[in-house]
Amino acid sequence: MLLVSGSTRERRKVPDQTVIAFLCPNCGAEVDVLEGYTNIRCEFCSSRLLITQRIGIPRVFARPKLKSPKKFLKNRIGKDTKIVDLDLLFIPLIKVNAEIIGWIKGHKKGKLKRDHTQEVYSRTQPVESIPRIEGEKLVKKRIRRIQELKIDPSEFYRFGIERVKIKGKKFEAYNDNLLHQFGNVFDLSLSIDEYIKKTSEILINNITREYKKWDEFKHYLRVIKKSAIIYYNPIYFARVQIEGTPYTYSFDAVNGNILLREEVIRKEGKKTIELNLLYSLIGCSGILISLVSSFIGKMPAFLTSLFILFFLWWSQYGSK
Amino acid sequence: MDLNDIKLIPLRCPECGEAIDSKEEDRIHFCSVCGSGFQVVGDKFKKVDVLYAKPQITLENKIFYYLPMWEILTTVSLKMKYSVNLEDLPEEIIRNRKFSELLTSLFNEKEAKKKMIFFVPAFGVTNRYHLMDQPGFQFTVNPPKLEKDSPKNMVGAEYSIEDAEEIAKVMFLSIRAHTRADILDANIDFDFHRYRIVGIPFFEEKGMLVDGIKGYRIFKDALRDWDRLKKHVL
Fold it and tell me: Which residues of A touch B166 (CB under 8 A)?
C-alpha cells in the first residue's frame, strides 16, 4: 500500500521519505503521497483521496533526469573515455513493510562467569576464581516488531541496484508505454506472491537467527500488515574503454550516483588454447633450429633460435 | 495505462455517498453518517459489518473516542489432550468461571471443539499495549454485552481481517502461555466464522484511555500515534 502526505510542510519535515506524485481527481492539483499511506487529503481542495490499484501491488517509477548521460559520464570518469554503448534500464526494487507478531520459546544459555572476590563479614575479600553459570533459563517471549525489507529481483545481475537510494526521490504511477519510450524494463523473474512469500520467510529468519544459540528453540511467528511497492529505478548501463581497457559502468539516471564500476575481464577460453598451440609450435621449431644450428655451427641460425625463444617467453609473460 | 496502475479516487461511502475521513494508514474506512464500514481490496470496496457500542459507564463531561476492534466468532479445536486443571490457570482467567471451564474442557477433552469470540484491536498498538489491561484480551476472556449506538466518527483501523485472524491465533497462544509452558507445540485449528468491527468507546483519564464498556485501561502511547488519531476522531 502506498500513502500520501499531501502537505508541503509535512514533506519538509521528512525530506528523505519517498514521495509518489499524483494529480487530485477533484481539483487537478499535484498531490504528493508518502510511502506507507492508503489515503490522503488534498491540501488544495481538502477532499480525502483513496489510493487504489486494480491488481497486485502498486508499481511506481522515477523519471530519468540526466539530460546528457554521455557527457555526464565523460565528465565523471575522464574526457578521453570512449563510450562503446549506453543503455537506459528500469530496474525494479521491491520494498516490503510488515509487522511480525507471535511467540518464541527456548532455553537461553547461561554465560560462564568467575568470581574473584567474596563478601565475608561485609568485607570484600579476594578468593580463588570460582566458576559459575549465570543467566541460564527457559524463556517464553512475545514478539511484536515492525520491519522493512528491500528485495532486489535482479540480484543475479550486476547493476549495482543495491546502492540505489529511493528515499528523497519522486515517483509516479507505473506507465508501461512511457517506460518503454525511455528505455528497457527489467522483468521480474518470480510472481509477486512468490516475492512476498520469500520476504515473509526472510523477515521471520531475521528474528529467529537472534536466538540461534538457544537450546530447544521454537517459535510461532506470523507476518501481518504486509505492504509492498515496486520501485522502478532508471539506471544507465555503459560499456566504456579507458586507455584501451574495457570497463562497465552503471549510474543512477535521476541523481547521477555511480553505482558500479568494473573492469571487463576477457574470457579467453578458446583463444588461449589456440595461442598455446601456436606458442608450442614456435617453441618446438626454436628447439629444432638450435639443435640444427649447434650441429652445423652456423651463428645466424643459432641467433634466430634465441630470438624465437625470447618471443615465446615475451608472449607468455612479457605482455602481462 | 497498465492494469497494475495505481490511482487516486475520492474517498466516499459506497452506501450513502458521503465523504469519509480516515487516518492515512487505515485499511478499513467508516462512514460517520450511515455508519457502514468497508475494506478496500484492489480497487473494490468490501463491506464490513460495524456495531457502535453504547457506553455502559455513564460519565458527565467526558468525550468518548471510538476505536475499532474486530469481533470474530471462532471454533477452536485441539486434536491432542493436554491436562490443564483449574488450579493451573492464572487468576485473571480463573476469575471468569465460564471461560476457565471452556479452557479446561478444551484442553482436557480429546478432539475438543469450542466456540470462542475473539476481540482483536483493529487499531495500531505498540508493545506498551501489553503492559496494562489489554481490553481485547479481557473482552475475549469475558465477552461484554454490547448495545447498539448511533454511528460515530471512527478511524484508526489499520489491521485487515486477514491480519486480525493471525492476531487472534497469537492471542490464543498468549492465553495458553499463561497456563502451560509447552506453548507453540499444540496442533490447534481455528475456524473463523463471523466477523464484525465493534466501535469501542474510550475516554481519557489520568493520562490513560479507559474503555466505556468495562473500564479497562490502556496507556495512550500503547496506541500508535494517539495524538494524530484523536484529531481525526474529534
Answer: 101, 222, 224
